[in-house]
Every structure is written in C-alpha cells, then in structure tokens.
Amino acid sequence: MSSKKSKNCDHCSNLVLIRYRIQYDDSQKWIMVCPNCWKLLAKDNKFYRYGGTWKAK
C-alpha cells in the first residue's frame, strides 16, 4: 500500500501523483491538471500560464 496521496486532475478527473497549476483561458482561473491535460491545454494557447507543480508525498 502506498503512503502517497494522489489527487484528481481538475480537467479529466483522473487520480494522479503530479499536478500542474495553470491558467488556460481568459477567465484567469487557476486549475490543477495532470501531465497529460497540461500538455493538451498549454499547446499553442495564448492564455496559458504556469503556476507551479504539486507532487504527492
């Protein structure tokens, strides 16, 4: 049993051990996304902004 605490991606809802804090639209709302959603939402996005990384401990 792992002692690491996974959390849900705000975009796809998958449980993950690493999430990135980003803004991806003109609402400027921060969300926490998994690496897969991060790549998808950041690509060619003029609203994209990175705000840090969360890692399960």
Task: Explain what you see.
This protein has a three-stranded antiparallel beta sheet. It has a two-stranded antiparallel sheet with strand order 1-2. The protein has one helix at 35-42; strands at 7-8, 15-16, 18-23, 31-33, 49-55. It has 57 residues and is an alpha+beta fold. β3 and β4 form a beta hairpin. 14% of the residues lie in helices and 35% in strands. The two termini are 14 Å apart. It has one domain. The protein has one helix and five strands, in the order ββββαβ. The model has no long low-confidence stretch (mean pLDDT 94). The chain is elongated and about 40 Å long.
Mean pLDDT: 94
Q: Say how many strands there are.
A: 5
Uncertain regions spanning at least 5 consecutive residues: none
Oligomeric composition of the shown chains: single chain
Q: Rounded to an integer, what's the Rg over CA atoms? A: 12 Å
Question: Any idea what the shape is?
Answer: elongated
Strand content: 35-45%
Query: Which structural class is indicated by helix and strand composition?
Result: alpha+beta
What is the rounded distance between the termini? 14 Å
Order of helices and strands: EEEEHE
> Biggest β-sheet, characterized?
3 strands, antiparallel
Residues in helices, as a percent range: 10-25%
Number of domains: 1
* Count of helix runs: 1
Main-sheet strand order equals: 4-3-5
Question: What's the quick description here?
Answer:
The protein is an alpha+beta fold. It has one helix at 35-42, and strands at 7-8, 15-16, 18-23, 31-33, 49-55.
